[in-house]
Amino acid sequence: MTQTVSQLLDRSAERRASSSNGYAMLLLAVAALAAGIYGATRMQAAPETGGAIIAVAVVVFAFVVIGFYMLQPNQAVAITLFGSYKGTDRAAGLRWVLPWMMRKKLSVRANNVISDKIKVNDLRGNPIEMAAQVVWRVTDTAQALFDVDDYKAFVNVQIEAAVRTIGSRYPYDDFEHQEVTLRGNHEQIGGELRGELIARLEVAGITVDECGFTHLAYAPEIANAMLRRQQAQAVVAARQTLVEGAVGMVEMALAQLSEKDVVELDDERRASMVSNLMVVLCGDRDAQPVVNTGTLYQ
After folding, report:
1. CATH classification of 111-218 is 3.30.479.30, yes or no?
2. DSSP string, 10-58
3. What is the model's pTM?
4. pLDDT for 119-133, tens place per residue?
5. Strand order in the sheet with 75-81
6. Which tens digits make up the pLDDT trace of 258-293?
7. Residue ranges, CATH 3.30.479.30, the chain
8. From CA 223, how far away is CA 37, in angstroms rounded?
C-alpha cells in the first residue's frame, strides 16, 4: 500500500509554551535602569559601591531586555531551546522568555492565494486552462515549522497538484448534461478541491477555509473548435424544440379543422397542408404566401 507523506513523517504537535507576561518584566527592567542611575550618582562618594551597583544593574537590564518579544492578534511564536521545541505562545501583547530561548514568529491569520493558470487534460483528454483561489491558515505551528521545509512554498505546490488532480477527474463539459462536469458543477467540484487540499496540507498543520476556480476554459488551441461544437449543439437543440412545437401545432390545426367541419381534405391535400404548415412554422424567414383564387384543386 502506498504511504502518504503524513504517514512517513514523525509528526510534530503544537503545545503551549511556558512564557511570562512582559509588562511585569518591564517593571524589573525599569528598576534596573533606576538602580544604574543611582549607582552613577554614588560614583563620586563611593566609587567601588557605585561601580558594583552599575555592573549589577547593567547585567539585570540586559538579561531582561533580551527576553522581550511582542505578539499581535493572530500571531504566534514557536520557542526552541538548543534545537528542541519547547512550545508555542499565542498570547497577544508584550511577552518574555529566558534570553537563551530562540523565538520564531509566524502568522496564523487567513491567507488568500490565487494560483497561476495551468494547462490540464480533462477526463476526455481535452487540454483546458485552470486557476484556483484558496483561503488557508496555519492551525498547528509546530507542524508548519518543523514538518515541512517552507510551508508557504509547500502550499503553492500542493494547490497546483490538487488542481491537476481534480481537473483530470472530470470532463470540462457534457453537452448531453448527464455527467458531473467542471463547468456545470462548480459547488461540487469546489468542495472536492477543498477536500483534496485539506488532505494534502494536513502534514503541514494547515487547513483550507474556502476555495474555488477563478479561471476555467478550453486551451487556446482547441477553443475555436469547441466553440463551434457548442454552437452546433445549441442550433440542434433549438431546431429540435422548434420541430416538436410545430408538430403539435399542426396536429392541433388538423384536429380542429376536422372537428368543426371547416373543410374536408383527402390524404393528398392533408399531406400538402402539413408540408406547408411545417415550412411556415420551421422556416428561418417569414413565409411568402400564394393566394389561391380558384378552387381548392386548381
Report:
1. yes
2. ------B---EEHHHHHHHHHHHHHHHHHHHHTTTT-HHHHHHHHHHHH
3. 0.70
4. 888 888 888 889 999
5. 84-89, 75-81, 102-107
6. 776 666 666 666 677 667 666 666 666 666 666 555
7. 111-218
8. 79
